[in-house]
From TrEMBL:
Residues 360-584 form the ABC transporter domain. The keyword Transmembrane helix applies. This is ABC transporter ATP-binding protein. It is a multi-pass membrane protein. SUPFAM superfamilies: ABC transporter transmembrane region, P-loop containing nucleoside triphosphate hydrolases.
Amino acid sequence: MRKYFLYWQNAGNLLWEAYGSYKSHFVVLVILGIVANGLEALSINILIPLFSFFGEDQSATTDPISSFIVHLFGYLNLPFTLIGVLVLICLLFVIKAGVMFVFGYLKNKVKNEYERNLKDHLLSRILSAKWPYLLKQKQGYLETIFTVDVIRASSAIETIFSIIITVTGLLIYLLVAINISQAVTAMTIVFAIIGFIIFKPLVSQARRVSQKSVNLQKDAIHHVSESATGIKLIKILGVEEAVSAIGKLFSKEYERLQNKGAVIQHLAAVFIKPLSVIFISFILVFSYYYTAYNIGALIAIVYLVQQMFGHVQNLQVFIHTLNERVPYIRAVLDYQKEIIKAQEEYNEQNGKPFIFSKNISFNNVVFSYTSHKKILDGVSLTVPRGVAVGFVGESGVGKTTIFDLVTRLFEPDSGEILVDGTDIKDIRLSDLRNAIGYVSQDMFLLSTSVADNIRFYDSSITNRQIIDAAKKAHIFEFIDSLPEKFNTLVGERGVTLSVGQRQRVIIARALARNPQILLLDEATSALDNESELYVKEAIEGLKGKTTVLIIAHRLSTLSNVDKIFVLKDGKIVEHGKSILADHN
């Protein structure tokens, strides 16, 4: 029992942490629930004086509520007649309907507002999280948070409100039942406690099944997302059946857990109905042989007991549903705490502005992804403003890492990176990144128009700038030949474009921003010789205006650079202009 109590205490703390900011809404809805259920219970109690019109037994109006109703008619100088009582009952139910409409509206409003705020908050936090943290996330995990966890956590609000209306109804019915018969109410409470003890183990089982389902669902979505990303390789290697078999195992286990959860949920629900009939039959026998109930009181108490059993049945379903939602709520809260700890420091208030008129320098920079191996080991270099430099070396020697450090996606373990003598850690992060144009070897395109892909969420970029950038990237003539020109949709991940065309659109995206520093990471790897020539000419035209850093395996790309740095084992082993001729 203590374990059960602790679980619900922890669950209560969890719900308060998740929805505590909406406490005023909960108070209003509790009040509305009390009013709505009170109106219905009052209508039921009026059955007692109502039935007094069909017989001579005037004891029907001896209970406190019935007596109050009779006196209320007298106080208002209204005749206590059959029609008057029926009008009162109808009026109470109409008012209750209005209250329930407001209740339903507020319930949905709070749920939708919570979901919107939560999604906005999480998206904002994810986009401003540190790059190392994001790299560690499983594929499909963020999608699961948004499409599953947030939705289920939001729906839990509806369940809580349903519990509120059910519990308030149960308490109101209980008070009215006590007003009519304390003995029958006491028997009902005892019967309910016995039922609670019998069905209590099902709640614990439901909680365990729900947690397993949540974890399994995340793994299944990760498997699907991972498979979708590598579908081309899967087909080429002919391993479709193996991948499908793993998916089927996830589906089969999830089906088993869902079936088990459904059995647990319905097991208690299906027995409440027959148990209520048995108990009501017992009440009828008890009333017939041992009490002097009139027909009105008997009908009212039987109806109240039936309603209470119905509410208990609904409450059992709602608690089971809330039990299922608790793991999702916990997952959302845990992720919120986790993502807050992983936020980048933008230095917007105390950071220095980005001023670049002299050079970028690395001073004895050391960096490692793990403690086992240093990717950069004491790298020092200087790049003057307005020049173009290249980085060459075998894969894994730290070329891309240098770019990631310049953009502050990573922070060096030791050493410093300076722009005009200012450590980039002290510069406002937004200023730094706004000054950088970046073309990576991963060609990311939105499934929208060519223009949108070049603009890439920067509304300050004009159509003229888009056209100029497209010309510099040698993609304008191709775009101009398209049916919708710059408004042509590129398809999912740019599927309607060739690899070379995609790469030139991405180069145009970087050039449209007129960056002070341009980072090209294998930016010409997918271009043919003619297109590469045009891009090299564009880079040559940037000299003196933009500082260009280029990573390339094709040495021809670096023919016009001012200096080349050769990396090996995390160190710069050679640098200079003559390196290209030596390697050729």
